[in-house]
Structure formats: C-alpha cells, structure tokens
Design a protein that fits this description.
This protein is an alpha+beta fold. About 50% of the residues lie in helices and about 20% in strands. The chain has four domains: about 30 residues, no CATH class; about 190 residues, Alpha-Beta Complex (3-hydroxy-3-methylglutaryl-coenzyme A Reductase, Chain A, domain 2); about 110 residues, Alpha-Beta Plaits; about 45 residues. Bound molecules: (R)-mevalonate. Pfam families: HMG-CoA_red.
Length: about 450
C-alpha cells in the first residue's frame, strides 16, 4: 500500500485514523485503541482540542503538576508546571520551601520591548534610500493604524521603526527594524500584521518615489517577521541570604557550600559544554511554566539561548556571588510572554493555570517564570555540589522503572520503602524487583 496520501486534511478524524492504522500499523487494532484511549469523553472539549491544529487524531498528555510555597515579591504562588521529567516539580518545590524561609524571591521586569523586521533587497544609493525612508516613515505608522489603534488605547503599539543597512553582511540587504510594546499579549500576530503592512506600504511608496532610479524603485521584500530574540524584554530574579543561613544540614559547612556553589556557576559562565547543561536545567523550570500557561516555549527557548550567547560565547544564564557575607544568586533572561490572546482564554487548563497564578499581567508572569528557572537551577546546583544529582533523580525516576515492570501497588510500596535507605540505580531497582518477585 502506498504510504503517500492526498486530501488527508479533508478526511474525517476517524478516516484519518483508519488510514494511519492501515498504512503504518498493518491494520493493528491495538494502535487504534491507543490513539482513541486519549480522546476526551467531553465532546465539546475534545472538539476544542481537535481544532487547535490540523489533522488532530488524539491528545498527547503531559503531567500538569504544581510547585507550591513560592514567595515572589512578598506574594505567595503555587506554580503550575507541565512537564514529563520526574524530578522537576519536586526540585522546584524543594527550592521554593528553602527560600520561603529566607525571604523568598525578588523579581523585576527590566524592559518589555519586542522586535520585528522587514528584510528587503535594495540596489542603489543608500542616501536616497534613507531620504525615502524619512518621508515614508509617518506613512508606515498611518497605514498600520487599523491594526494598532486598540493596542494604542491600552498604552502599547509601535515604538519606532529604523532603517538598517546590512549590506556589509550581504550585498543589497537592508531592514526595517521595528520595536513594539505589546503589553499583556505575546504579540506575535500583532507584530507580524504590522510588519506585513509596513512591507506593502514601503514597496508601494517606493514605486512612486521620484528620486529613485527605475532600478531603485524596485525594492524586493524578502520577508516580514517578528524576532524571537528579545534582549530588551528582560526580567531579573534573585535570592539572597546570609551565608550562614545557606544550609539546614549540620554536615555541610555553609561557607564551603557557598564557595562550591559559586564555583559551579562560574564553571557554567566560562565553559560552554557545562553552560548548555546548566541552562538546560534552568529551562526545565521555565518551559514547564511557559507550557502550562499556554505560551510558546519554542520562542522562549530560541530567545533565551541566543541571549546566553550574546557575548560571543555560550554562557550561564545565572550568576552568584558573596558580598559582605551575603550570598546572592540571580538570573537575567529575555522572555516574550502573553497572558491574553493565543491559548490563554481558549484552553481550559491554561485558563486555570493563569487563575492559579492570580491572573497575572505579562510582566508578573515573566517574573514567575524567571523565578521557576532560578529555583530549578538552585536545586540542581545544590544537588550537584553536595550529594550528586542521581540520588534525588533516581528517587523520582524509581516510579518510572517500577511502572515499566508493571509493579503492583503493593510492590511499589515495598520498593519505595526499600530505596529510602538504599541507593537507587537502574540495575539495583531491577534486581530488587526480581528478588521481591522470586520470594513469592
Ligand atoms: C537535568 O534535566 C538537568 C540537570 O542536568 C541540570 C544541571 O546539570 O544543572 C540536572
């Protein structure tokens, strides 16, 4: 049977599944069962999810967990997290509790500007292009009025449009580089609509600009698109406490712990191989909240990693120091987030997640997300520089291994108790399951 198909998107959901199962699963009914067992019995809810994308055949579940006890700027939060990695929510919760007793997290939004660009080719005199840009700039604002008027009423809109000469990097390449304030919206649709209108007006006006030669008049628009690199949409989150308060464990000397912790951060600042893993741990916390709140984690990932390389070498997103016997640990990251538009009012769980966060503004959500990243990094570095990561990791992963072996509830209870006092490695867990079962 041919594995290609035409008109797939127009088939009914059930015909799509039949085709998939026949073509790729050799008509195996088990595959159909797996696909269908994730359907929601609430038909309206299922239809809502079906319509988020094209060709939906089922739902893909991720655990939706909550990390309580986050004190951020003197306000308590229980942070919603959607993530599959066993230890992430546990680590966030532990870090939250730790800092709750030490004044909590302080966070501030440093800037909120977003960026979009019209990329175009122009072959001619730059001075004439610049003069044209000056005359056309007010028309670009005017032409986008229907798109911007509501945003402007609320205090946002287009901040500025610049002409940028990029012809040194690529022959004939120029940009309209625009900056935007999109308030509580992530703003992708708003920015892209503005940019496409800029491009249209810019090209049309160029055709009628008398100072251009015939060749110059023919500006070639390559594309108009927002940038997910938002170095001026920045948030900072911080924790601090006297060095002596840094550990609850009498076996750990707080000063030694602080020094080792700071060295671990410094290693991530200077060594890209470590920085990537260090930042991955931060993104464990960030993505989980971004996803739970219906935001675009791919955009956030792309922007954050670009920011981590802004000085020419990929580096840590967090920093730490001791000053006057006070330990400081902080993060500074760009985050383009929305709390209106997109999925925020459409996806019932996203709505619930935002409600759980006291229906935050985009700025408040930036703070919460940055804190989740910082907390996650604190928990990871604390484990890495003390017990090692595997102890906590394997404790959380234990349940996954037990489930792989289809352990009964009774077996789970026995083995969870056993591994409270024994080191859990994959092979040790497998051996313990076999031992337990052979005793029966
Ligand atoms: C695992 O998902 C994340 C860590 O590797 C982060 C780190 O090493 O800092 C534990």
């Amino acid at each position: 049977m041919s594995k290609s198909v035409s008109g797939f998107s127009k088939m009914s959901k059930s015909n799509k599944i039949d085709w998939i199962v026949a073509t790729y699963f050799n008509h195996n009914e088990d595959a159909k069962h797996i696909i269908k067992q994730y359907w929601n019995t609430n038909i309206k809810l299922q239809q809502l999810h079906d319509e988020f994308i094209e060709n939906t055949i089922t739902n893909y579940y991720l655990p939706f967990g909550v990390a309580p006890n986050f004190l951020i700027n003197d306000k308590m939060y229980a942070i919603p997290m959607a993530i599959e990695e066993s230890s992430v929510v546990a680590a966030a919760s532990k870090a939250a509790k730790f800092w709750l007793d030490r004044g909590g997290f302080k966070a501030e939004v440093l800037s909120t500007t977003k960026i979009g660009q019209v990329h175009f080719m122009f072959h001619g005199n730059f001075k004439t292009l610049y003069a044209f840009f000056k005359t056309v700039k007010p028309k670009l604002f005017e032409a986008t009025q229907p798109i911007t008027k509501n945003m402007e009423k609320r205090g946002g809109g287009i901040i500025d449009i610049e002409l940028r000469d990029k012809s040194e990097s690529m022959d004939g390449y120029f940009q309209l580089h625009a900056t935007f304030e999109t308030l509580d919206a992530m703003g992708a649709n708003f920015i892209n609509s503005c940019l496409e209108q800029f491009a249209k007006t810019f090209r049309e006006e160029a055709l009628n600009y008398d100072d251009f030669s015939e060749k110059e008049k023919n500006i070639e628009i390559i594309m108009s698109i927002l940038s997910n690199y938002v170095p001026d949409c920045l948030v900072r989150a911080e924790v601090s406490c006297p060095v002596n308060d840094l550990t609850e464990n009498p076996d750990i000397n707080p000063e030694e712990f602080a020094k080792k912790f700071i060295q671990a951060v410094k290693i991530a600042e200077v060594e890209p191989f470590r920085a990537v893993t260090h930042n991955k741990g931060i993104m464990n916390g960030i993505d989980a909240v971004v996803l739970a709140t219906g935001n675009d984690f791919r955009a956030v990932e792309a922007g954050v990693h670009a920011y981590a390389s802004r000085n020419g070498r990929y580096s840590s997103l967090t920093h730490a120091k001791i000053e006057n016997d006070i330990f400081y640990f902080w993060i500074e990251i760009p985050l383009a987030l929305g709390t209106v538009g997109g999925l925020t009012s459409l996806h019932p769980l996203v709505k619930l997640a935002l409600e759980l966060l006291h229906n935050p503004s985009a700025k408040e959500l930036m703070q919460v997300v940055a804190v989740a990243g910082l907390a996650q990094n604190f928990a990871a570095l604390r484990s890495l520089t003390t017990t090692g990561i595997q102890e906590g990791h394997m404790k959380m992963h234990l349940m996954n291994i037990l489930n792989q072996f289809e352990a009964t509830n009774e077996e789970k209870k026995t083995l969870i108790d056993y591994f409270k006092t024994h080191t859990a490695t994959h092979s040790a867990v497998v051996e313990a399951i076999h031992n337990l079962r052979s005793k029966k």
